[in-house]
C-alpha cells in the first residue's frame, strides 16, 4: 500500500522537478553566464520534453491495462492536466513576444525597436512566472494527497 502511495507521487515530483530545474535554475544560470538564448532554448526544449513524457505516461496509465492501481493512474492524469497549464503559459508568453516583435518592427527608430523588444520580453515572462509558482503549489498539494492515498479530482473516467 505504501509503495502504491509512493508511485502516485512520482508524476507530481516529475512536474515539480521540471518547474524547479528548467524554469528557475537554468534561467538563473543563463542570466548569470550571459548565454541567455542557448540556455533558455535548451531549458524550453527539455521542459517540453518532460511535459510530453508526463503526457505519454498519463495516456499509457489511463488508456491501457497497465498494472498500476487507479490511484496511480489518477495522479498521472492530474499531473498531465496541470502540465497543460504550462503549455498555456508558453502560448501566452509567445503571443506577447509576437505582439512586441510586431510593434518593434514597425518602428523607424532602431533604439525604439530595441526598447520595445526588451519591454515586451519582460512583460511576456510575467504570466509564465505566475503559472510556474501556481503549479508549484498545486503539485505540492497533490503530492501530499498522493502520499496519504487520496484520489485527486480529475476530469474524465479513470479505469
Overall morphology: elongated
| Cα gyration radius (Å) | 19 Å
Q: Indicate the mean pLDDT.
A: 90
Between the first and last Cα atoms, what is the distance in angstroms? 18 Å
Mind summarizing the main beta sheet?
A: none
The number of helical runs is: 4
Work out the helicity level: over 70%
Number of strands: 0
Q: SSE string, helix = H, strand = E?
A: HHHH
Number of domains: 1
The percent range for strand residues is: under 5%
Low-confidence stretches: none
- Look at the helices and sheets and give the structural class: mainly alpha
Give structural notes.
This protein is mainly alpha-helical and about 160 residues long. It has one domain (about 1-145). It has 4 helices and no strands. It has helices at about 1-35, 35-65, 70-105, 110-145. The relative contact order is 0.16.
Key structural traits:
159 residues; mainly alpha
Secondary structure elements and pairings:
Elements: H1 2-33, H2 36-63, H3 70-105, H4 110-147
Task: Describe what is shown at a glance.
Helix content is 84%, strand content 0%. By secondary structure, it is mostly helical. The longest helix has 38 residues, at 110-147.
Amino acid at each position: 500500500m505504501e509503495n502504491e502511495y509512493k508511485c502516485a507521487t512520482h508524476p507530481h515530483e516529475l512536474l515539480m522537478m521540471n518547474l524547479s530545474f528548467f524554469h528557475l535554475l537554468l534561467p538563473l544560470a543563463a542570466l548569470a553566464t550571459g548565454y541567455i538564448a542557448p540556455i533558455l532554448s535548451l531549458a524550453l526544449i527539455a521542459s517540453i520534453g518532460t511535459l510530453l513524457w508526463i503526457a505519454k505516461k498519463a495516456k499509457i496509465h489511463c488508456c491501457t491495462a497497465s498494472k498500476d492501481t487507479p490511484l496511480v493512474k489518477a495522479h498521472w492524469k492530474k499531473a498531465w492536466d496541470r502540465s497543460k497549464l504550462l503549455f498555456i503559459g508558453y502560448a501566452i508568453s509567445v503571443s506577447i513576444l509576437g505582439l512586441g516583435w510586431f510593434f518593434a518592427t514597425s518602428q523607424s527608430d532602431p533604439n525604439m525597436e530595441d526598447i520595445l523588444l526588451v519591454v515586451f520580453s519582460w512583460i511576456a515572462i510575467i504570466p509564465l512566472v505566475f503559472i510556474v509558482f501556481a503549479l508549484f503549489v498545486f503539485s505540492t498539494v497533490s503530492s501530499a494527497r498522493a502520499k496519504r492515498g487520496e484520489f485527486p479530482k480529475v476530469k474524465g473516467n479513470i479505469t
